[in-house]
Amino acid sequence: MGILYQPLYITTTFLIYLSLILVVPVLCVDTFTQALLSLKSEILDNSNSLSDWILPSSSTSDNIHACSWSGVKCNENSSLIIGLDLSVKNLGGVLSDGQFSVFSDLVDLNLSQNSFSEKLPVGIFNLTNLRSLDISRNNFSGHFPSGISNLDSLVILDVFSNSFSGPLPKDASQIESLKVLNFAGSYFSGPIPSAYGSFKNLDFIQLAGNSLSGKIPPELGMLKTVTHMEIGYNSYEGSIPCEFGNMSRLQYLDIAGANLSGSIPKELSNLTNLESLFLFRNQLSGKITWEFGKIISLSSLDLSDNLLSGPIPESFSELKNLRLLGVMYNDLSGTVPEGIAKLPLLDTLVIWDNLFSGSLPKDLGKYSKLKHVDVSTNYFVGSIPPSICSNGVLQKLILFSNNFTGELSPSLSKCSSLVRIRIEDNSFSGDISLNFGNLPDLSYVDMSRNRFSGGIPSDIALASKLHYFNVSNNPNLGGIISEKTLPLYSLQNFSATNCSISGEFPPFGRCKSLLVLELSMNNVSGIIPRSISNCQNLVSLDLANNNLSGQIPVELASLPGIRVVDLSHNSFSGSIPAKFGSSSSLQLLNVSFNNLSGWIPSKVMDSSAFWGNPKLCGRSFRPCRGPNGLELGSRRTQNLAWVLITCGVVLAITAAVFGVFYFRRRGKGQWKMVSYSGLPRFTANDVLRSFNSIEEATDMVPPLGGSDCCKAVLPTGITVFVKKIEWRSERMNLMLDLISRMGNARHKNLTRLLGFCYNKHMAYLLCDCLPNGNLAERIRTKRDWATKYKIIVAIARGLCFLHHNCYPAIPHGDLKANNIVFDENMEPHLAEFGVKFLIQLNNGPSLAKVGNERGEIERAIKEELYRDIYNFGELILEILTNGKLSNAAMSLQNTSKEVLLREVLDENDVAPSNSVQEERKLVLEVASLCTRVRPSDRPSMEEALKRVSGLKKQG
Questions:
Q1: Nearest-CA neighbor of 253 among 284, 291, 220?
Q2: Distance (Å, rounded) from C-alpha 163 to C-alpha 186?
Q3: Contacts 24+ apart (CB under 8 A), 123-129
């Protein structure tokens, strides 16, 4: 026993001695350093940002050890900690109340841009010397704790972008020293406390992006020291208080997207220091008061997307500092005051979708450096102002859907800054004299539906960045297609339908980027050159109604992404290339009314696609017969085909089962989280645990109850709609790019994609979960005409935004009654936009065949946009008939419009003599146009929106 006891005694003595050595330095550490070490042990430091928060090996000073640590600021003699800056360090976890108790001399505390969660520790409110408190961009949740008024020296309080809920803290108004107050971007609810009008020194107040309601308190007008106020993106009741006109120092006022109604108070004209006023996306009505002309300091004025009427006041000519004038999406009328053209600083004029008439001011652009002009969808006449680009900085000229006439302004041919020209749907005439060699940045040109002549300019080949060119429906354009046109390096879309173009079809050259080529209804002759094989990214080719001949080149059928081929009404001969039958991308092949012969490839199309070719035969058309008169390939071939198909199905099912088993066993890789505006900074684990019982979700695939979608309640009580999207690993970047564009698409008639978590093989999309169900559930509910009209216009606006305001456009892909959902105000929103297109994108051809990821998305978009428009037409008829007619195309094709109109009128209890009968007729006509058989004959969503919106304006 003695022999064993001695080594054990020595070892124990050594350990005790060693522990004393290690403990002594800790016992000598100052209380501030100990508190920070305690804080470090409590929080999550995933990036090791606090790696220098360690004790020295020895201590020779009475100073605070922590003064040398990152983020720690001490006084001059290092005896007190007066600042703690832990911002942007990727920290997380939950902070306890006692962690800050020793820092009574702290002046600045910054915890911003981290992932701290749960409740804000009330112990912070005991730091009575604080002058600045910044906890922005975290995930603090629950009600904001009381006690903030204890910080009676506080100058800056920044709480932006957290997950706080419940009412705004009323006691914050008791801090007389406060100059900056930011409670934006959380989930605060209830009204703005009227006590917030009692701040004595406040300069900046930001309450936007919450769930605030009730009336805006008029007491806010007592804030005489405030220069910057943002309280929009909430859902208030009532109007803008006229007392706001008393905030004499106010320079910036934003109450956009706030459900405001009533007129704009003329008292706002008393704000003589105001530089920016944003009231867009409300329900403001009445006229724009002429007194606004008194706000000489005004630089940005945006009143868009309201119900304003009347003219732009002549007094706006006095706003010499105005840079931005935005009044789009209203019911404004009259002419644009000539004085607007003389505003020296004006660079953006956005007044589209109103009822404006007359000519544009003749000097527009002469006295100011205009960059962006959009006056589309009005009733303007006359010509383009000759000085529109006098100062050489004009980038966007958008004039479509008006009644403009005359030739193009010569100044445009010298406007080297131009990027985008849209003048379609007018009555312009003369030559297309743009001098493309002088327009190095020009990327988008749409001159369709005009009266141009003189052919397509030969110098178009000099426009090196041009990717979209459309001159369709200029019946007198004439000329030929130059062999230098189609090989344009960046050209993606070339449309010249119904232009009286003649001459032989030119060679394709490189045509590396070409996606869409439309030359139907012309007089083009000759053959399709075999050089079409150079157009490896071509998606759609429409050469119908020309004089083309020769054989259909096999190179066309071999293009990897070709979806639409329309060669109808020509003189093609020979056989249809068999490769069309094995094309995985082909959706439409129309070769009707040619001189083709032989077998129809196995790719099944409607028989109408082959009419007018008496020598064609095949299973989907007329049977092919051999010399003995028997049908070729009838039974034996069919039986063999069925055997092969059955084997293929069995193999596919086996592979699928194995794949599921494999991924369940092996996991899907590390999860990542992406959040957009309106979603707190959750981690992927936070989200996955919300709809999964697995403790650690980094490597497992959480189930969704046997479905690809579900509802989930996130940690702070936010209910979201979850959609699962799977992808092949090589498709991940491609899919993430489109999801990112979906997340950034914001419109009042779209549901928001709040964020998503993903790994190498799948993603969970987190979307708004709106409270009032979908249109399919309510489709049979009797509604008055005004309600039905509101729903139709809202759908059109949301779809138009996706098609024309997102670049590249985002197809909805699955527009139907189930995907029209209603918010708390029964406002319709388009749900699941882009989701079906994502799934199709994942199932497309491999990247090795396609070549480039971004091009693959853009190649598929146009066909999906056509399908959206078709589905919109179907939805119109479904809404008009309370769900009784759900197949618009079939109804419109098989029923006379008079009978169909009678059914619509009966369903809406409208007598034939009723004055609103004409309105139903016009809406029915829009449905008819949108469901035309040929996609290219359908209107764009801009045109469809203009037609249905026109009813409101006429009323």
A1: 220
A2: 5
A3: 123/96, 123/97, 123/98, 123/99, 124/100, 125/150, 125/151, 126/100, 126/101, 126/150, 127/100, 127/103, 127/151, 128/104, 128/152, 128/153, 129/104, 129/105, 129/153
Catalytic positions, written as ranges: 814
In one letter, which amino acid is 104?
S
Beta strands in 560-621 (DSSP E): 564-566, 571-574, 588-590, 595-599, 615-617
In sequence order, the β-bridge partners of residue 710 are 722
Gap between the Cα atoms of 59 and 66, Å rounded: 12
Q: Please choose, from the candidates 806, 816, 702, the residue with its C-alpha nearest in 3D space to the C-alpha of residue 753.
A: 806
Amino acid (1-letter code) at residue 671: W
* Burial status of residue 311 (CB atoms within 10 A of its CB: 0-12, 13-18, 19 or more): middle
What b/e string do you get for 797-817 counting C-beta neighbours within 10 Å, with b at 16 or more?
A: bbbbbbbbebeebbbbbbbbb
Q: Distance between CA atoms of 301 and 313, rounded to whole angstroms?
A: 13
**Strand ranges (DSSP E) for 485-557?**
493-495, 516-518, 525-526, 540-542, 547-551
Q: Look up residue 566 and give its two tokens.
A: 């329309």
Find how far residue 750's CA is from the centre of its chain. 9
Q: How many CA atoms lie within 13 A of 698 on its CB side?
A: 2
Tokens representing residue 595 in the block: 């001189």
Q: What are phi and psi of 450, to 5 degrees?
A: -135, -155
With 0-12 / 13-18 / 19 or more C-beta atoms within 10 angstroms meaning exposed / middle / buried, residue 402 is buried
Cβ proximity of 504 and 528 under 8 Å: no
Residue found by looking up tokens 């919300």 in the block = 690
Say how far apart CA 742 and CA 676 lie, in whole Å: 10
CA distance 883 to 635: 44
10-residue mean pLDDT profile of the chain (955 residues): values are 41 39 51 92 91 77 85 92 94 88 93 93 94 94 94 95 94 96 94 96 95 96 96 94 96 94 95 95 94 95 94 96 94 95 96 94 94 94 94 93 91 92 94 90 92 91 89 93 77 92 89 89 94 91 95 94 91 93 86 92 74 82 60 46 46 44 46 76 75 41 52 75 85 82 85 88 87 81 80 92 84 91 86 87 54 52 87 89 63 53 56 58 85 83 83 40
Residue 657 CB contacts under 8 Å (≥ 6 apart), including other chains: none
Closest CA to 192 of 183, 180, 202: 183
Cβ distance 292 to 270 under 8 Å? no
Query: Phi then psi for 671, rounded to 5 degrees?
Result: -90, 145
Rounded distance between C-alpha atoms, residue 453 and residue 139, angstroms = 62
Token pair belonging to 445: 């040109």
Q: Quote the tokens at residue 320.
A: 């010499």
Are the C-beta atoms of residues 835 and 724 closer than 8 Å to each other? no
DSSP 365-400: TTSS---EEE--SSEEEE---TTTTTTS---EEE--
Residue 797 identity: R
662 burial (CB, 10 Å; 0-12 / 13-18 / 19+) is: exposed
| 125, two tokens | 């409110």
Q: How far apart are CA 931 and CA 876, in angstroms?
A: 11
Question: Which helix or strand (DSSP H or E) is residue 739 part of?
Answer: helix 732-743
Burial of 913 (0-12, 13-18, 19+ CB in 10 A): exposed
Q: What angle do CA 226, 231, 237 make, to 5 degrees?
A: 125
Cα separation, 637 vs 643, in Å, equals: 10
Residue type at 735 in one-letter notation: M
**Cis upstream peptide for 440 (omega within 30°):** no
Cα-Cα end-to-end distance for the chain:
108
114 C-beta neighbours (distance < 10 Å), count: 25
Kindly state the tokens that stand for 498: 């119904």
Q: Across 744-877, where does the E strand assignment appear? A: 753-758, 762-768, 820-822, 828-830
